[in-house]
Design goal:
By secondary structure, the chain is of the alpha/beta class. It has helices spanning about 40-50, 70-75, 95-100, 115-120, 120-125, 135-150, 165-180, 195-200, 220-225; strands at about 1-10, 15-25, 30-35, 55-60, 65, 80, 155, 185-190, 200-205, 210-215.
């Protein structure tokens, strides 16, 4: 289980996170919601180690990983699909997937069959350059690359942003499948309320660098959540 305890995070003198806490359990989807600029991506960067915290702790299976470097967190099974996908446009689809091998022992360096089961288009385009794919296909590639690492915690930062509806449905089905396997915890950062609501087991809503609402899906008040998503 991922546990974030009262973390503060700064960019220079600007404070991005103020006493933020959250949890993500194996076999469940935790949705982090809020408007642009409220600290959602900063929270994800703190979890994966891209940005240091100045107070509080990030724990994975009760071990404090707050000072653990990014590559060690990847070896611990923490995978991040960043906002904007960040695939390698000049590498082929196959080569992009193989970049996920970096944190794996040699005996595990292969692309799992479930990547192609979830996203068949990737198998058809293995020799195509990543930059030649549509935005939705690149998003599928970014998720596939994360799955190559055999994650125990999968973090998806706004995977529906700028994606056509048919691929949003494919991504939703993939998240549901991965949750139901019971092998990983999933954190989904999202502004698209209906997509998040349909997938969430737990939710965390942020505003101005703080958590303002949190709880189980059964306790979610749709009106209150939507109020923190509208501009």
């Amino acid at each position: 289980m991922l546990t974030v305890e009262n973390i503060d995070l700064f960019y220079g003198a600007a404070q991005a996170l103020k006493g933020v806490s959250m949890q993500a359990e194996t076999g469940k989807v935790t949705c982090v919601m809020g408007r642009n600029g409220v600290g959602k991506t900063s929270l994800m960067r703190a979890v994966v180690g891209q940005q240091p915290v100045t107070r509080g702790a990030v724990k994975w299976d009760d071990d404090d990983i707050s000072k653990m470097p990014v590559f060690e967190r990847a070896r611990q099974g923490i995978a991040f699909v960043p906002q904007g996908r960040e695939i390698f446009p000049l590498l082929t689809v196959e080569e992009n997937l193989e970049t996920g091998y970096a944190c794996l022992p040699r005996g595990q360096r292969r692309v799992p069959d479930e990547v192609f089961d979830l996203f068949p288009v990737l198998k058809d385009m293995l020799k195509r350059r990543g930059g030649d794919l549509s935005g939705g296909q690149q998003q599928q590639l970014a998720i596939g690359r994360a799955l190559v690492t055999r994650p125990k915690l999968l973090i998806l930062d706004e995977p529906t942003e700028g994606i056509q509806p048919s691929i949003i449905q494919d991504i939703g089905r993939a998240i549901s499948y991965l949750r139901d396997t019971g092998d990983m915890a999933i954190v989904l950062v999202e502004q698209y309320f209906e997509f998040a609501r349909d997938l969430a087991d737990r939710f965390t809503v942020m505003d101005r660098g703080e958590v303002v609402l949190a709880g189980d899906k059964a306790d979610m008040n749709e009106t209150d959540v939507r109020r923190h998503l509208t501009v």
